[in-house]
Design brief:
single chain; alpha/beta; Aldehyde Dehydrogenase, Chain A, domain 1; Aldehyde Dehydrogenase, Chain A, domain 2; 2 domains; seven-stranded mixed beta sheet; six-stranded mixed beta sheet; 23 strands; 22% strand; globular; binds nicotinamide-adenine-dinucleotide
Length: 497
């Protein structure tokens, strides 16, 4: 018997009556663990209507009370950290430790949402003209929606609905159909924390449900995280329907290794940031750019990568788990084969890796290529697997030129002991998130997640101050309260007098 994944609509859990059924599978053996019925058009409409209704009352709830709901929520998430990580690990295949990290990076955003009073503050200027003051408020938009990917089923939904709701909005979440059980548990805990029924609704499905969200007149803003083609489609369609859209998309992240960097540190950090989570992170390092004689470190990198062994989620020795589905595995194997055909040196090939007793799982072992060039498919496409490409250049300037020519701009890092090299890199690089001796520079929630170029479409990024701007409108008030109660004379000009 597999579990049924419910929708959450208006505070009620329902199986849904859509004809299309989707199996949620264990990526370690592709056996079904749950089933969901895609939401019908009527169910999506009902979810939006519930959010509209709940938001009317919620926007009147004092900001300190909304903050307290978020405070309770972050505590509940911490209390259920292991339970959430177990659900997450089972449906994604991530190792338990990494699943805990996924949940934790979301809890940090819920914590930030408890700070909403300070974050929503507007601006004031007294005496903008004689006896006239101007001040601004941030007010909720109404109902916002989130469409999330498979690779962080806790963190990414938590980038969205706690902050949107803390701002006073209602929310409709359409999580990835591949791992919907973690987001459902997050939603249950949100209600347990005191969020009113109907404020957060969760509908399951694929393109049809997303299309309805994109066209629904009551949805004012859409947060999306996923692949480039879908991100472009969502940004274009959402904005065409006059909605506010932030769309976070694919990536290809480079690490630049300078000759004055510490070799052991570089090798350790490269291994973890390239094959951790089976490379299924939008901030994974997929290209290592060796500057000068650091290319001599590649054989040691190979030895270190070869020691990483994928395994089951509850195997404490496993470095990472399987890929999410057989299509992902086929795509990664195809790109590895293309690399060999195009003339790259495959130093370590994980194509045939498997785990005993789980041969039908989506396993790919750590894979390392050297001699990769810009023209190869290996370099041009986002692989989203445990595959690291190495490239060699002579100078830092050449490395910067290479990275800046990439159409992606999510994250990058430089490993060096030179302040001057680090300063040059951070200043000149055209990438939105830069690590200096930090391989995966995902900012904490008081900053924002600031991908650039084809890794992000929109203006305002996820979490931090930018998210508050994204989920609110600014209302600016200009007020005069003359002591006499009378404003004398006429003013026929535009100037404030
Ligand atoms: P995906 O684009 O396939 O799916 C994302 C969401 O869009 C899912 O909810 C899915 O149901 C929906 N969707 C899929 N096809 C659709 C279509 N044709 N029309 C409308 N909606 C559709 O992405 P994924 O495979 O779940 O996630 C992996 C991708 O996400 C990678 O490219 C990765 O780089 C990216 N990602 C980016 C970031 C970031 O912050 N930039 C973070 C995490 C993941």
């Amino acid at each position: 018997m597999t579990q049924q994944v419910n929708h959450l609509i208006g505070g009620e859990y329902c199986q849904g009556s859509g004809d299309q059924q989707i199996a949620v599978t264990n990526p370690a053996n592709n056996q079904p663990i749950a089933t969901l019925n895609c939401a019908t058009e009527a169910e999506v409409n009902q979810a939006v209507a519930s959010a509209v209704e709940a938001q009317k009352a919620w926007r009147e709830v004092p900001v300190s009370e909304r903050a307290r709901v978020m405070l309770r929520y972050q505590q509940l998430l911490k209390d259920h950290h292991d339970e959430l990580a177990t659900i997450l690990a089972k449906e994604t295949g991530k190792t338990f430790a990494d699943a805990k990290g996924d949940v934790w990076r979301g809890i940090e955003v819920a914590e930030q949402a408890a700070n909403i009073g300070s974050m929503m503050m507007g601006e004031t200027v007294e005496n903008v003209a004689r006896g006239i003051d101007t001040y601004s408020y941030t007010q909720p938009l109404g109902v916002c929606a989130g469409i999330t990917p498979f690779n962080f089923p806790a963190m990414i939904p938590l980038w969205m609905f706690p902050l949107a709701c803390a701002c006073g909005n209602g929310f409709v979440l359409k999580p990835s159909e591949q791992d919907p059980m973690t987001p459902m548990r997050l939603a249950e805990l949100f209600e347990e924390a005191g969020a009113p029924k109907g404020l957060l609704n969760v509908v399951h499905g694929t393109k049809e449900a997303v299309d309805q969200i994109l066209h629904h007149p009551e949805i004012k803003a859409i947060s999306f995280v996923g692949s480039v083609p879908v991100g472009q489609y969502i940004y274009k369609t959402g904005t065409e329907n006059l909605k506010r859209v932030q769309a976070f998309a694919g990536a290809k992240n480079h690490m630049v290794i300078m000759p004055d960097a510490d070799k052991a540190t570089v090798i350790n950090q490269l291994v973890g940031s390239s094959v951790g989570a089976a490379g299924q992170r939008c901030m994974a390092i997929s290209v290592a750019v060796f500057v000068g004689n650091t290319k001599e470190w590649i054989p040691e990198l190979k030895q270190a990568m070869a020691k990483v062994r994928p395994g089951l989620w509850d195997d404490e020795e496993a470095g990472y788990g399987p890929l999410i589905n057989p299509q992902s595995k086929a795509r990664v194997l195809d790109i590895i084969a293309s690399g060999k055909e195009e003339g790259a040196n495959c130093l370590l090939d994980g194509s045939d890796f498997t785990v005993q007793g789980y041969e039908s799982g989506n396993w790919v072992g750590p894979t390392l290529f050297s001699g990769v060039t810009k023209e190869m498919r290996l370099y041009k496409e986002e692989i989203f697997g445990p595959v690291l490409c190495t490239m060699e250049v002579d100078t830092l300037s050449e490395a910067i030129e290479l990275v800046n020519a990439s159409p992606f701009g999510n994250g990058t890092s430089i490993f060096t002991n030179s302040g001057a090299a680090a300063r040059k890199y951070q200043h000149e690089i055209e990438v939105g998130q830069v690590g200096i001796n930090v391989p995966i520079p995902v900012p904490l929630p008081f900053f924002s997640f600031t991908g650039w170029k084809n890794s992000f479409y929109g203006d305002l990024h996820a979490y931090g101050k930018q998210a508050i701007r994204f989920y609110t409108e600014t209302k600016t008030i200009t007020a005069r309260w003359p002591e006499s109660g009378i404003v004398e004379g006429q003013n026929l000009t535009i100037a404030l007098k």
